[in-house]
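agent> fetching stored inputs for the 2-acetamido-2-deoxy-beta-D-glucopyranose docking request
agent> found them:
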Amino acid sequence: MLPKLAFAASLLLSICAGTGVEGRRRHGRSSEFLHYSAMSCRSYSASLDEFGGVGDGVTLNTLAFRAAIEYLGQFESMGGSQLYVPPGRWLTGSFNITSSHFTLFLHRDAVILASQDERDWPLIEPLPSYGRGRDAEGGRYASLIFGTNLTDIVITGDNGTINGQGDTWWRKFRGKELNFTRPYLIELMYSDKIQISNLTLLDSPSWNVHPVYSSNVIVQGITIIAPTNSPNTDGINPDSCTNTRIEDCYIVSGDDCVAVKSGWDEYGIAYGMPTKQLVIRRLTCISPTSAVIALGSEMSGGIEDVRAEDILAIDSESGVRIKTAIGRGGYVKDIYVRGMVMKTMKWAFWMTGNYGSHPDNNYDPNAYPMIQNINYRDMVADNVTMAGRLEGIPGDPFTGICISNVTISLTPVPKKLQWNCTDVAGISSGVVPQPCGQLVDQGQETLVTCQFPEESLSIDCIEVQMCSNRIKHW
Ligand SMILES: *[C@@H]1O[C@H](CO)[C@@H](O)[C@H](O)[C@H]1NC(C)=O
Ligand SMILES: *[C@@H]1O[C@H](CO)[C@@H](O)[C@H](O)[C@H]1NC(C)=O
Ligand SMILES: *[C@@H]1O[C@H](CO)[C@@H](O)[C@H](O)[C@H]1NC(C)=O
Ligand SMILES: *[C@@H]1O[C@H](CO)[C@@H](O)[C@H](O)[C@H]1NC(C)=O
Ligand SMILES: *[C@@H]1O[C@H](CO)[C@@H](O)[C@H](O)[C@H]1NC(C)=O
Ligand SMILES: *[C@@H]1O[C@H](CO)[C@@H](O)[C@H](O)[C@H]1NC(C)=O
Ligand SMILES: *[C@@H]1O[C@H](CO)[C@@H](O)[C@H](O)[C@H]1NC(C)=O
Ligand SMILES: *[C@@H]1O[C@H](CO)[C@@H](O)[C@H](O)[C@H]1NC(C)=O
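agent> prediction call returned; pasting tokens
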């Protein structure tokens, strides 16, 4: 039974419902009801302005966020709580979500603005599966919104904005002025049941959304925008996560739109935590210097059972790209992609076995990755420079590659060699232009359809509820 509380109500729905805010006036003080869908609703709600927050774009609100979250933590086992961020520009340093069963909700006119002063960003340990920070040795700045060892966290809004104001970070990174790894916008670590939805993320200092060592993660309805020349502004990076669903996202950025990861060389091998059971659907991506979906390059814990469908790529370097190297170990297997439309691409298909990029010189030169059972089907691509550049590893071929029903039209000045395949093996069927001989054409009579699993993953069965909370205005 759900508790009957004056300020909260929830109703189970089998379909998703919209977000809305309805105004109400009562006893002279205004209040309104917030309606939105989430995987769980909360009994208690408070607004950032009740904790001294000032949304003028200038006042630093780090302490207000911390005070609000600490106060709301007392309701963790009493139905959970919600922090409402009202309209305004809320400048803040990094803050932590510290209790489970917690929702952060941004009004559509709320902007969380990240401080550009490094002193507002505490340093935290490197990830155990990476051994060091991605930009520099040693620690890393905590993400703007960080949480660890939590259950049931919702970060959502009526398309409210989180602006990382990354330009100063990018400049310092390019000028080699930073001693530590740049922060991400949202990172949740060792957590279960996460929903990040209906937000706009702008100008992250580095990666945007990073769930790591987590399970049951939904990322939905996120718009991510960063300049296409900004360094490492990856969109969504599920990293050593089980059961993740990324859908209805629009991403324009300077790096991969989605990068699936699981740790780096000897650290990732030792940690041994794969990313598996990942669904990506209805993604629109613009990434002129990177991939729409990258698998790796950090894949040392393994990547398996990834299902991507209904993807639109515009002006991107490559479609789905596998990136790995000797020393990574691990595997990329059981990858299924169908229904992809690509417009203006350098490479429709790209696999790179010699990506390099090692954390240090202690990687194991005998740690060969295993790349197997990779399925791509039902795709159309226009204005492509080169159809496929498939480079496996000498002595360690990438096998079980299947490409079917793919039509690629070329740019006015295409590469002479459209498919360059080394150390790969597999089959093809109904692919234009004709693939390399390593992808053995199954012939006109026997059109083969590459696999795509029909049974759904448990992340598709998470029920959504309609939540309703009264918001008071002060
Ligand atoms: C996001 O917003 C859309 C449109 O308002 C709504 O249909 C959907 O349920 C929302 N999803 C989540 C997870 O909040
Ligand atoms: C957030 O938590 C991390 C790890 O628990 C800690 O190192 C960091 O200082 C915390 N950040 C803040 C702003 O309290
Ligand atoms: C968080 O969870 C990890 C993995 O279960 C565990 O190793 C770590 O000690 C936990 N940290 C805290 C602060 O509870
Ligand atoms: C959210 O806001 C962004 C940026 O203003 C906009 O491009 C996008 O269309 C909006 N999304 C929705 C669902 O309204
Ligand atoms: C980086 O380290 C150098 C040498 O220790 C120091 O001079 C510099 O101020 C540091 N820079 C930052 C941004 O912390
Ligand atoms: C081939 O792919 C297109 C989408 O690009 C799809 O509409 C069509 O149904 C597919 N054909 C077969 C035989 O599956
Ligand atoms: C085709 O791709 C080239 C780059 O290879 C680009 O300059 C051109 O604008 C694209 N044409 C169209 C019609 O998109
Ligand atoms: C084909 O790929 C191999 C391996 O990467 C490379 O050495 C060779 O130069 C490529 N050939 C062409 C014509 O690009």
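agent> quick read of the result: Residues 344, 383, 385, 411 surround 2-acetamido-2-deoxy-beta-D-glucopyranose (ligand 7) (CB under 6 Å).
agent> awaiting further instructions
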